[in-house]
Amino acid sequence: MICATSIKQLPRFGISRIALACGVFDGLHIGHQKIVSTLIEHATKTDAIPVIMTFDPHPRKVLAPESPTHLILSRKHKLQLLKRLGIGVTVVIPFTPKLLKLKPEAFIAEMLRVDGLDITTFCVGTEWRFGHKGMGDTELLKQLEDKYQFRLIPVPELSTGKEKVSSTTVRQSIDKGDLTQVKKMLGRHYSIMGTVEFGKGIATSQLYCPTANIDCQNEVFPPNGIYAAEVQIDPENELPKRYFGVIYLGNSPTFVDRPPNKPYMEINIFDFNDDIYGQLIEVEFIQYIRGDEKFDTVDALKKQISIDVDAAKQVFAI
After folding, report:
1. At a CB cut-off of 8 Å and minimum separation 6, what does 17 contact?
2. Range of 204's domain?
3. N or C: more exposed end of the chain, with fewer CB within 10 A?
4. pTM of the predicted model, to two decimals?
5. CATH code, 95
């Protein structure tokens, strides 16, 4: 995937004609996916390359650092999911206080005015806002079509039942642990991507249940507990290896007195003994099994782990 930090860099890659979609795309839910599929459709019609423009950090982290939006996806995870949707070129704009202060038309001029680059189509969600205080909207973009020589394609929001699909509603459902609703809104199982790192060795040395400890870069988690999971090792590969397993997500209260800033996440992968330290891994949350709890003895925890593993295997009928 080509990943630039400014649309002005695209001609360096031999790109001269694009269809563009713009937004934060946190979660890449079914509404975002509709924008992406619409973009690809119009790129094909106009003989252009589909390009996604997004922002890092999330604008809310700049606008209100005291109450930032917690991210459903890490940057790497979002780019990987975009690649799976058929996007080969992304522009990840560093979002700065300067951008925050730009008036809407100045914001568009800063983002889109590039010598040697034709923008045939501009796809955004109908509720997308941009520029100072979010004053820019699709009505303004419609007025700018002729000036910037693009055709605006506003993509309506989607709903699941009575609830509109948005990154906010996805976050709320993840927080509540409503994996069924999350799956409806994402169009896939909720997943976390991270790097396998060294842990304290407790799972192997004391619990006799070896686990892969995952360094997670996302900021939203379902409730602490045990989950049946599917695992992709090396998810950036076109044919990643897939396995079943059981996730522990929690504060390790049996061994740790003070909760960490974010929960520990580790997974026991069934029938797996390979060394994957340092590798990228993606874990899909399939089914909740039980909550996190403190055990009086290590033996009591070991007995419960055996029950948890059996419960997860029953989910997959293995």
Report:
1. 46, 47, 48, 49, 117, 118, 120
2. 189-315
3. C
4. 0.92
5. 3.40.50.620
| Residue burial 236-269, b: 16+ Cβ < 10 Å; e: rest | eeeeeeebbbbbbbbbbebeeeeeeeebbbbbbb
Residue of 94, 115, 87, 108 lying closest to 11 (CA atoms): 115
- 124 near 107, Cβ under 8 Å? no
Q: Do residues 91 and 48 both lie within one domain? A: yes
Give the whole-angstrom CA distance, residue 266 versus residue 215.
9
* 222 and 306 together in one domain: yes
In this structure, the answer to whether residues 305 and 227 fall within a common structural domain is yes
* Residue 173, in any domain of the structure: no
Kindly report the CATH number assigned to the domain that includes residue 238.
2.40.30.30
pLDDT at 150: 95
Q: CA-CA distance, 54 to 170, in Å (whole number)? A: 19
For residue 180, being part of any structural domain is answered with no
> Which of 116, 148, 164 is the endpoint of a domain?
164
Helices (H), the chain: 30-45, 59-63, 75-84, 97-101, 104-112, 138-143, 145-148, 167-176, 179-186, 202-205, 298-315
Do 275 and 303 contact (CB within 8 A), yes or no? no
pLDDT, tens digit (0-9, with 9 covering 90-100), for 224-242: 999 999 999 998 888 888 9
Contact 145, 124 (CB under 8 A): no
Interstrand relation of 163-164 and 191-197 (parallel, antiparallel or unpaired): unpaired
pLDDT in tens, 122-169: 999 999 999 988 899 999 999 999 999 999 999 999 999 878 999 999
